Amino acid sequence: MLTYTIRRLVLSIPTLLFISLGIFLLLELAPGDPMAQVPLTVPPEVKERMREALGLGEPTHVRFWKWLVQFFWIEPQVFIDHVLGTGFSEGKLRIISWQHRSPVMDVVVQRLPQTLWVVGTAYVVGVLIALPIGIYSAYRQYSIFDQAGTFITMIGYSIPPFFTGPLVIVVFSVQLGWFPFIYDTTHQVTDWDSFIVQLKQMIMPVMVLALQTTAQISRFMRASMLDNLNQDYVRTARAKGLSEAVVVMVHVLRNSMIPVVTVIALGMPAIFGGAIITEQVFSVNGIGAQLIGAIQANDLPTVHTITFIFAVLIVFANLTADILYGLLDPRIRYE
Amino acid sequence: MNETRAPQASSPSRSQWAEIWHQFKMHRGALLGAIIFVLIIGTVFIGPLLWTIDATYIDIRARNQSPGWTHPFGTDQLGRDTLARMMVGGQTSIAVGLTAMLLALSLGSVIGVLAGFFRRLDGPLMRLTDLFLSLPLLPLLLVMVLLFRESLSSIFGPESGIFILIVVAIGITSWMPTARIVRGDVLALKEREFVLAARSIGTTNLGLISRHILPNVLSPIMVSATLGIANAIITESALSFLGLGFPPDFPTWGRLLIDATVYLQDYPERVFWPGLAISLTVLSVNYLGDGLRDALDPRIRGR
């Protein structure tokens, strides 16, 4: 197991390098010029110097190498400095956003909590709703509850968040006036009342994101439970007189959770992608909104960095899922 | 010539496709999904012949009308007829969905068959698939559309340029699941006796693949085709929704949806039609796929 983990970790390095190179080369083809906004009165030699200052004068491979060094060497140093108060990164050049003229990672760190709050809560809520639905619809297969559950999950699959978003806004903000439809990112939680305000503004985005999660995970849970419910060990457990609750909730559930846990791990990065749209609908000023802004402003370092962070999340989620599968299921042997 | 004897009534022998159709009919959701999908396609492509108001005709005096007899779905802020725009938008959305699905499907099938059939190609192709699966797809799609929009528009014109771009972008980012499924099936099929028999009478690799392997992996390919349509329609709408799809005056369902969200407070019903169209299409296609999966699986068939 340990060798497998190490081998997978080592293998993920070239994967990430390839992805990073791919994104970089794709961005290299960008026709946009960051100097386009500079007034025409600026003389060409000054413009050339500004271009140099942005690091645009050098050939592609040098710039890719510099980005790699900045991302994997200098940014961690900045992080260590920030935590421990040391001075490793002093005077070293970080990845600078062309849009804000400040380090990309600073903006990411500012924006990330918003995304994590909304996306993280939504994921947890979605999973917590999905598991009981999946368990019960498998236990009562083809009952009315199961049919309704199937229909609702199909709807959850099929209705995109950019429709459910406006829909809940129409119902809960415009018609009922319960919740605000613009997420206030500057809101501080200090006391009970401000916590209620925060809760209110989080409910709708969380609802929209959780619907997607619930739809997928309850399907998996149901299928996995159905696989296990007909197994011989279940009959044995019933035959030796265990109560139905113990049979289902302990014996079957624990075995059914094995694939579901890996699906939950796999789904985590995907929900970040989905959050891009949800953040746009509710004006959450998170990392997805930052990416969209950077794409529209032709801010290539930011686009590269954020896309790469997403890629890292995906690669590590895949890795976690595979390792979890091996840890939870003793029948799986990785050599 | 003697009379041919009628087949015995006790054992009606049906062809494979009749058998599949029989099973498909049993799945009520799938049948309903198929009917709705055909209806939507029919409305969208034949409807404009009957409902002749031009989707781009601006009648500023009739702007912001609620649904009525002259405009069954109402009009938008420029007085354009929403029903006409929905149908034209649907043509684009469904065309994008179908073409992107075909591209993804052919890419996925080719890669899957090659990886499954030729052992030497298996490693590299599957690593490539893994690599593509680790890509953050939505951000990359956005970047691709942004980068190549201008250059393709200037070559092919603004509409067909962006059409090609979106179809290709969706196609090359969604072939991976198909490739994996097809590879798995081909690996299993390759070891079967009939393949060995075909090989023993001197069938070439090309003949083996086209005559013996491909027909047998058709069912997973068809199932992933339905899922592919749904995925492509949603992705196209998402791109339009984020402002990186078709140009503003060129309606698609996603574009109509985002245009309507601006007027959400005053005319909330306007969001409803495009959203309903997208959801209904995707829902019907998903049910269709569900039914196809059951109908094409011989282990379930006949139960």
Describe this protein's structure.
- The complex is a heterodimer of chains A (335) and B (303).
- Chain A has 335 residues and is mostly helical.
- Chain A has a domain at 108-328: MetI-like (MetI-like fold), CATH 1.10.3720.
- Chain A has helices at residues 2-28, 44-53, 60-84, 104-139, 144-158, 161-175, 192-229, 232-239, 244-282, 287-296, 300-328.
- In chain A, α4 crosses α7, α5 (144-158) crosses α7 (192-229) and α8 crosses α9.
- The longest helix of chain A has 39 residues, at 244-282.
- Chain A is globular and about 85 Å long.
- The mean pLDDT of chain A is 79.
- Chain B has 303 residues and is mainly alpha-helical.
- Chain B is built from twelve helices and no strands.
- Chain B has helices spanning 16-26, 28-50, 82-117, 119-133, 137-156, 158-172, 176-190, 193-200, 205-213, 218-241, 253-262, 272-296.
- Chain B is globular.
- The two termini of chain B are 41 Å apart.
- The model of chain B is unreliable at 5-11 (pLDDT under 50).
- The chains are: A mainly alpha (335), B mainly alpha (303).
- Chain A binds chain B through residues 15, 18-19, 22-23, 26-27, 29-31, 154-155, 157-160, 162-163, 166-167, 169-170, 174-175, 269, 273-274, 276-277, 280-281, 291-292, 295-296, 303, 306-307, 310-311, 313-315, 318, and chain B through 130-131, 133-140, 142-144, 146-148, 150-151, 230, 234, 237-238, 241-244, 254, 257-258, 260-261, 264-265, 268, 271-272, 274-275, 278-279, 282-283, 286-287.
Structural class of chain B: mainly alpha
Q: What series of H and E elements makes up the topology of chain B?
A: HHHHHHHHHHHH
Our measurement of the CA-to-CA distance between the termini of chain B, rounded to an integer number of angstroms, reads 41 Å
Largest sheet of chain A: none
Which whole number gives the mean pLDDT of chain B?
A: 79
Spell out the CATH superfamily of one domain in chain A: MetI-like
Number of strands of chain A: 0
Radius of gyration of chain A: 25 Å
Helix content of chain B: 55-70%
CATH architecture of one domain in chain A: Orthogonal Bundle
Mean pLDDT of chain A: 79
Main structural class of chain A: mainly alpha
Instruction: Indicate the overall shape of chain B.
Output: globular
